[in-house]
Amino acid sequence: GEVEVLHWWTAGGEAKAAGTLRALVEQEGHTWKDFAVAGGGGEAALTVLKSRAVSGNPPAAAQIKGPALQEWGELGFLANIDVVADKAGWDKLLPKTVADIMKVDGHYVAAPVNVHRVNWLYANPEVLKQAGVELPQTWDAFFAAADKLKAAGVIPLAHGGQAWQDATVFEDIALGLGGVEFYRKALVEADEATLKGPTMVKVLTTFKRLKGYMDPNRANRLWNDATALVINGKAAMQFMGDWAKGEFSAAGKVAGKDYLCAPAPGTEQAFSYNIDSIAMFKLKGDNTAQLALARLIMEPTFQETFNLNKGSIPARGDVSMDKFDDCAKRSRADFDADAKAGTLVPSMAHGMAVKTDVQGAFFDVVTNFFNDDAMSAEQAAERLAKAVKAAK
Amino acid sequence: MSLESLSHAPRGHARTLIHLVLIAWAGFYLLPLVVMLLTSVKPLEEIRSGTLLSLPHALTFEPWIKAWSSACTGADCRGLERFFVNSFAMAIPAVLISTAIGAVNGYALTKWRFKGSDLLFGLLLLGCFIPFQVVLLPMAQTLGWLGLANTIPGLVLVHVIYGLAFTTLFFRNFYAGIPDELIRAAQLDGAGFFTIFVRILLPISAPIIVVCVIWQFTQVWNDFLFGVAYSGNETKPVTVGLNNLVNTSTGVKEYNVDMAAALIAALPTLVVYVLAGKYFVRGLTAGAVKG
Amino acid sequence: MSALEIRKVNKRYGSVHVLKEIDLSIESGEFLILVGPSGCGKSTLMNAIAGLDEISDGSIHIGGRDVTHVGPKDRDIAMVFQSYALYPSMNVAENIAFGLEMRGVDKARRAQEVARVAKLLQIDHLLERKPAALSGGQRQRVAMGRALARQPQIYLFDEPLSNLDAKLRVEMRTEIKKLHQRLGTTIVYVTHDQIEAMTLANRIAVMKDGVLQQFATPQQIYDEPVNMFVAGFMGSPAMNFIRTRVVRAGSHYGVSVRNGAGRDVVLPLPERGNGLSAWVDREVVLGLRPEQITHVTPHRLERPLVTELPCTVEVAEPTGPDTLILIRMNDQEVAARIEPHAQAPVGSPMPLAFDMSKAVLFDPATQQRCH
Amino acid sequence: MSALEIRKVNKRYGSVHVLKEIDLSIESGEFLILVGPSGCGKSTLMNAIAGLDEISDGSIHIGGRDVTHVGPKDRDIAMVFQSYALYPSMNVAENIAFGLEMRGVDKARRAQEVARVAKLLQIDHLLERKPAALSGGQRQRVAMGRALARQPQIYLFDEPLSNLDAKLRVEMRTEIKKLHQRLGTTIVYVTHDQIEAMTLANRIAVMKDGVLQQFATPQQIYDEPVNMFVAGFMGSPAMNFIRTRVVRAGSHYGVSVRNGAGRDVVLPLPERGNGLSAWVDREVVLGLRPEQITHVTPHRLERPLVTELPCTVEVAEPTGPDTLILIRMNDQEVAARIEPHAQAPVGSPMPLAFDMSKAVLFDPATQQRCH
Amino acid sequence: MATAIDAVRASARDTGFRDTLQRWLPKLVLAPTALCALVFIYGYIGWTALLSMTNSKMLPSYTFVGFDQYVRLFENERWLVAAKNLVLFGGLFIGVCLLVGVLLAVLLDQKIRSEGALRAIYLYPMALSFIVTGTAWKWILDPGLGLQKLGQELGWSSFRFDWITDPDRAVYTLVIAAVWQSSGFVMALFLAGLRGVDPSIVKAAQLDGASLPRIYWRIVLPCLRPVVFSAVMILSHIAIKSFDLVMALTGGGPGYSSDLPATFMYAHTFTRGQMGLGSASAMLMLGAVLAIIVPYLYSELRGKR
Ligand SMILES: Nc1ncnc2c1ncn2[C@@H]1O[C@H](COP(=O)(O)OP(=O)(O)OP(=O)(O)O)[C@@H](O)[C@H]1O
Ligand SMILES: Nc1ncnc2c1ncn2[C@@H]1O[C@H](COP(=O)(O)OP(=O)(O)OP(=O)(O)O)[C@@H](O)[C@H]1O
Ligand SMILES: [Mg+2]
Ligand SMILES: [Mg+2]
């Protein structure tokens, strides 16, 4: 059979990772039709997907994640792949949190490929050492360290000005200061009272305070350029998901030695995840290739290679972590622990927590607040509540 | 026109000044190109550390070769090469058809006015102000019905349709300046609608054809939205490839390859500019009509 | 059957009413000349005949067929545009051959025709040039050639010779006359050259402000103008208009004039069968052409209705073959044409012979002719 | 000091040599008229004077200053283009006012000038129109108005009246004459109208194929042409050229002609101080203008050098004031101009008076005048 | 005999048909275009108008909600910023492009020997897609990398050019890049127009004493009114559709201070699953543009008469 896969793993390590999947599919005698659309974290791909779906010609599989899976499922576009899942025992292999995301009405419609941890803090140990600071564990420690770094003449925090980068930092603070409960209420359930509440104001105030530790040129910097600042020692730290490791390794840096990774301050006991998955579309004809694809995605071979390239950890818990770096190993351990403790939270900034419309509202207010010196945290909280309500 | 034929075009200081202004502007236009060119021949480390306009310490053409033949654009690592054919297969017919129709439209609208012809033109023009994003979904549906979804003819159709307003505009406004007497004389000579067009108007339309082709070719060649939405797996135009190469979301950014790829993707358009530029000849109407 | 019939044609450009109820009809083979002051609507009428401008009202018939709504290319008309309208991208030969090509004439014949026409118009050395590299008169001749290469039912010529020198003009005029005689084609021709109008036309239509004033043979227009406008318009130098009064002199009538010297004389009027009794003692305008006032020679005075009057030369203007002099009558300037050798010095007296046989009278109120 | 001096000017368009060693010079306030066949280079010369076309060779001086390399805007010249060259985007008033505006004339003055010029040219009702909505003659008058609004050192008029009707033309001619007399501006004027040339010019330059043929006063050009080209070119209808032979008749010379009836006669030649002895019995071309051959009237024969000859009317062409008749002499067609009433019917014999006082002779080989 | 008559009739009918055809030809030729416009432009506009009255989310749905979406739009801060930016950006972009385009075309028309090369240089930005040039521009405008740094390195230490990081000025950087890209084409449009102007009117103007700049300003450019019209149409089209530009250069940032309606509309329709709101914004955008363009269009098309 033939399987057309719409995805946005288009360049570098990602593309290589996608290539392995392709090889696996083709080894089984199927044809892989590659339909890659890069751009804006999958925005372009989603647009294309919609137009394909509307023209009655959707691809067999597409990279869809988080709540969007539910939306597509509810519209009746997605195929039931329980056959594959049952046979391979996905329910057992996947943590419940992950499994639930892959299901619509209790049936599997998508296969998970990885788990990204979003709440990471990266640092350049050289720079830290020169300024005489440790990697901070709390927000107070962070600001203390940042002050010293600033005094030492480096940029304490590397950052890029895109909305999703702002939102990533924002959710790290929300998780660190507010804790898992607050995070869930505010960023997952989008509860109006919580959004307006004092904790949110505190979070926002802290968030804004960070600005003083970033360089003025951050506006519209890409995340990888920010990472480059850390690599070059121009900046000390960066908040970013674990895909940032790719940049470090590309520059020949080794985790734990040339750069440090740790959960964002105050989020030691939490894990905000970003899980990529491939959803299967209902097809008119032969779906053997599609099912094979679903199966292969979950097989350890793919999960390992793919995640080694991507910086994330495998979605299924039984893959050996031997080849992975320190950060990934830590990620795995934390994930399992948090899964047990119930402190896994979906990343709002990466579209795992809320539907895109609410996410958009968050982005708008957060990024505007961050860039607008005139706006107070209270106003921002107020607006956040209003915007989120309007978007729902 | 005009000053080419005049004896007393500016001389001396004025001339030097004109040259200076023109060259200064050229500098402004060239700046990004220089940046891109320099970047495309630097190794990645140098880009990370160096400054924008510094000359490369270690000149490398690796990025160009990679962009052309081996860069990954998805699970496919064959570079941009393979997209070129698609882009040509799409752009050439789309440009020719829309230019031809636009020319005839412009001619009919100026020299054969009828009640409502201005209205028709107005409506056509206004239409081009709908954001293309709006037409994305309904057009997808329409193409699906026509059985043209994800095919090159489908893309050609889309580009022709949405290019018509402007090609018509160019020609209409050019022909508006050509004396009606010429058409009248030809009518009396017994020439019909198309004969007049082909024999009398086309031979003096070179400058506007150039403009129109430049515009349309650029639009079609550089279009991403329609290209990505309506192309199929094997029919993707080069912009989609370029985008995939450049717009990686969470991977390592190879700026040098990106820049090389962009320059490669732009080459055909550049060639069109240089070739078509030759036909920016002087107008020929001078002397045909008095008064 | 009339070759061309124009019935109550009106043409308006927005609020400008350019042609007003034009009614004309000419027979096949006739040569019609349109004259009138600049801007009176001649070109507009030509365009209407050719079908290039939609008329606002009325109808046009060619060879008995109503062509009001027929396209220009099906009217079988060739036209020389006042503004030339040469095809800028074609050279002279191509310009001339285009009409033939459109009518399916084969290449050899076309070349032959082009050669013939070019020779006729003396532009055979220019065949390879583009219009932009031609002089004004050369362009005009190419425009002419374009029409002459064809053999249509009707030719329309809109001031086709205005940019040519006198010599060439005479030659071209002769060619057109020959062409007309040989082919017997119907021709409508606009000109402001009186000689052209008089020598070429079978009939002349005089227009003014979009209204047809008189439509008659050249001689009638010249000798029997219907109103002062026509009388003044045709003829160069123009007819003299002298305000005067009709007097009865026995069984005859005359007009009384007072020459520059202050003497009152009665000039006899020719008998024309229309009683002038109603006009006696009323003011009229006497129309007398300059060539009818000339120097005195004995034999001239023997002719009837010729009267000698002493006058004074006020201005003299030699034009080559003749000299124009201005004298004063009834306190108005009056032009006379004399042979150069006969001229008396400016300011000195000179007797002149007034030939009244072709004198006409106009009603000063309506400006219509009354005798 | 000469107002305009043209020294050995040459102009080539690629391989076409349009102006050949033109040498001209006129005084301030003179009225120079350029005539010549279509395509002889008149407009090119005008363009060269105005500085619109670079000349290939030679120099041009205005008011004593060498302006060969001065831009047109600094030559202080106003010009009426043969092709009008109106500004299509401006209305008539703006077209006329533009030159004034460019020279810093204030608004009120401009309006006043526009009004004055428009009135003069009878286009005051058209001031708001764009050129495209004008008739040919109206456009030409606007072009004229544009020049007349200014008061430059030199006016250049390139066939400024060619599209006007005879009446308007006469009026305009008079206006130009008045203008010239009032302002005393130097004027260079191209025309193909002989009357215009004769009545307006102080001096006429006759050109042919880019070569200046004769440069003299109108009367000289008319009466004493230097060669057959000039003689034939000026005058309408053109001078008759009759191949004949010089004979000696006592102390005088004459030419022998044979009229239609086959009779040989000797026509006396005027005495001009240049011995004709070298030409006796040699073939020459006799130049005699049509108005010098006319019907016989007694007094006319009394004048010296007038000879009566019996002839036969072959063709008659009435032109209004006169009638042209063709007779045959030395087996050549010869035109004569007579008064309409004197005309004998075509084909019948008619005696004509030949006035030889202005007859000229040309060398048939060189075409130069020899007597 | 009958056949001969038939033949005559047939040919009469034939010419009648050809006549009619000739008369209808202009309309016939325009018909496909008209049809396309009707279906693919106005049909889709209608469809969008319809959607703007529904609460369509990720994909079109037809639950009508009246003008709710429009109300929400006007309460949306970001939309207001985007709309304001369009006015600013559009106005400046069109104005500067026209100016630069005319200027360059006129200068290039002075018998410049290297015209061909310069023309190609001015045009080339059109050839490059913003997907990549955006990056180059971002670098150039980046205070830490580009011009500012260059200026400071060259010794002008107080030199500042950091608009791209300033929420109040970021939109001007869009103007710079957009002008860079489009002004060359406007130049080409004008150059083509200049080449069609009758040289003799320029000669006449020279004699009237106009200096070269004045000749262009008063005589030549008024003749190019149709070209200006084309250029304005093209430029407004580019302005309201500037999408790639914003995405590549500022991403709408800092914050959403440099957002434009096109990016707003795209984000809501496709990325954020608020198709109803997106459609409403598209309709408003269209409405606003029409409010400006229609009178201009009307006056231009009337003026021809
Ligand atoms: N661009 C050109 N290239 C070649 N020949 C040209 C060009 N322009 C004019 N000529 C030729 O130069 C000659 C003189 O032209 P010019 O316009 O001066 O004639 P003219 O005397 O004004 O004639 P007319 O009375 O017909 O206006 C003509 O034979 C014409 O064909
Ligand atoms: N498009 C137009 N709009 C308004 N008036 C016009 C238009 N075209 C021509 N006219 C007017 O119509 C009248 C007749 O024009 P037409 O060209 O027929 O004159 P004409 O008799 O040919 O004059 P000429 O001898 O000067 O060529 C003129 O007064 C002219 O101004
Ligand atoms: Mg006319
Ligand atoms: Mg000329």
TrEMBL record, chain B:
Transmembrane helix listed as a keyword = yes
Highest taxon of source: Bacteria
Organism per entry: Plasticicumulans lactativorans
What is the protein's name according to its record?
Answer: Carbohydrate ABC transporter membrane protein 2 (CUT1 family)
PROSITE patterns per the UniProt record, alphabetical? ABC_TM1
Q: Which UniProt keywords apply?
A: Membrane, Transmembrane, Transmembrane helix, Transport
The keyword Zinc is assigned to this record:
no
TM ranges are: 20-41, 88-107, 119-140, 152-171, 192-217, 259-281
Q: Which SUPFAM superfamilies match?
A: MetI-like
Q: Name one Pfam family in it.
A: BPD_transp_1
The text of the family note is: Belongs to the binding-protein-dependent transport system permease family.
| Annotated CDD domains | TM_PBP2 (cd06261)
Topological relation to the membrane, as annotated = Multi-pass membrane protein
Record-level GO BP terms: transmembrane transport
Q: Which GO terms describe its cellular component?
A: plasma membrane
Automatic annotation (TrEMBL), chains C, D:
Please identify the protein, giving its name as recorded: Carbohydrate ABC transporter ATP-binding protein (CUT1 family)
Q: Which species is listed as the source?
A: Plasticicumulans lactativorans
Parts forming coiled coils: none
* Keyword Nucleotide-binding set for record: yes
A GO BP term here is:
carbohydrate transport
Which is one Gene Ontology cellular component term of this protein?
A: ATP-binding cassette (ABC) transporter complex, substrate-binding subunit-containing
Task: Quote the PROSITE patterns the UniProt record gives.
Answer: ABC_TRANSPORTER_1 (PS00211), ABC_TRANSPORTER_2 (PS50893)
What GO terms are given for molecular function? ABC-type transporter activity; ATP binding; ATP hydrolysis activity
Which InterPro entries did the record assign? AAA+_ATPase, ABC_transporter-like_ATP-bd, ABC_transporter-like_CS, ABC_transpr_MalK-like, ABC_transpr_MalK/UgpC-like, Mo/tungstate-bd_C_term_dom, NA-bd_OB-fold, OB_MalK-like
Could you tell me which SMART domains the record lists for this protein? AAA (SM00382)
Q: Which residues form the ABC transporter domain?
A: 4-234
Pfam families with a match to the protein in the record? ABC_tran, OB_MalK, TOBE
- Record keywords, A-Z: ATP-binding, Nucleotide-binding, Transport
Looking up PANTHER family in the UniProt record yields:
ABC TRANSPORTER ATP-BINDING PROTEIN, MALTODEXTRIN IMPORT ATP-BINDING PROTEIN MSMX
UniProtKB/TrEMBL annotation, chain E:
Q: Chief location of this protein?
A: membrane
Q: Where does it reside?
A: Cell membrane
GO CC entries: plasma membrane
Chain segments annotated as transmembrane: 28-50, 86-108, 120-140, 170-194, 215-240, 275-298
Topology in the lipid bilayer is annotated as: Multi-pass membrane protein
The record ties this protein, via Gene3D superfamilies, to: MetI-like (1.10.3720.10)
Q: Which residues form the ABC transmembrane type-1 domain?
A: 83-298
Keywords (alphabetical) are:
Cell membrane, Membrane, Transmembrane, Transmembrane helix, Transport
Q: Which GO biological-process labels does this protein carry?
A: transmembrane transport
Q: Is Zinc a UniProt keyword of this protein? A: no
Which family is annotated? Belongs to the binding-protein-dependent transport system permease family.
Q: What is this protein called?
A: Glucose/mannose transport system permease protein
Q: Which organism is it from?
A: Plasticicumulans lactativorans
